[in-house]
Amino acid sequence: SRFRKLRILEMYSSLNGRYPCLFNFPLLQQLKIHLSHYIKFDLEMLAGLPLLKELFCHDNPFLTGNIKVSEKFIPPLNGTYPCLFNF
């Protein structure tokens, strides 16, 4: 990819299938995929985005996998976080 220093990627497209190239931006901090109903990817692919802070992928039935959330990255909230660890 020629955009190795890309930090924000926001897409508005009806993509269909797998796109491993989306997860090859080592400096990417924000990934937003709108109209993502048919993009297939596993959350473990996010390992290719070590600096990712924000992921937005609305209404995607093909999103699979598990994600580990470190408590040090969760903002202070009143109450407990069980909903964050059970999805």
Give your account of this protein's structure:
There is one protein chain. The chain is mainly β. The chain is built from 1 helix and 7 strands; from the N terminus they run βββββββα. Strands 1-3-6 form a 3-stranded parallel beta sheet, with no helix packed on it. Strands 2-4 form a two-stranded parallel ribbon. A two-stranded parallel ribbon has the order 5-7. It is globular and about 30 Å long. The chain starts with 7 loop residues before the first strand and ends with a helix. 9% of the residues are buried.
Structural topology:
Elements: E1 8-12, E2 16-17, E3 30-34, E4 38-39, E5 41-42, E6 54-57, E7 63-64, H1 82-85
Parallel strand pairs: 1-3, 2-4, 3-6, 5-7
Strand order of the largest sheet: 1-3-6
This entry's quaternary arrangement is single chain
* Element order: H for helix, E for strand: EEEEEEEH
Tally of individual helices: 1
The number of distinct β-strands equals: 7
* Rg of Cα set: 14 Å
Proportion of residues in extended strands = 25-35%
Uncertain residue ranges: none
Which descriptors apply to this entry?
3-stranded parallel β-sheet; two-stranded parallel ribbon; 87 residues; 7 strands; mainly beta
Can you describe this structure in just a few lines?
It is built from one helix and seven strands, in the order βββββββα.
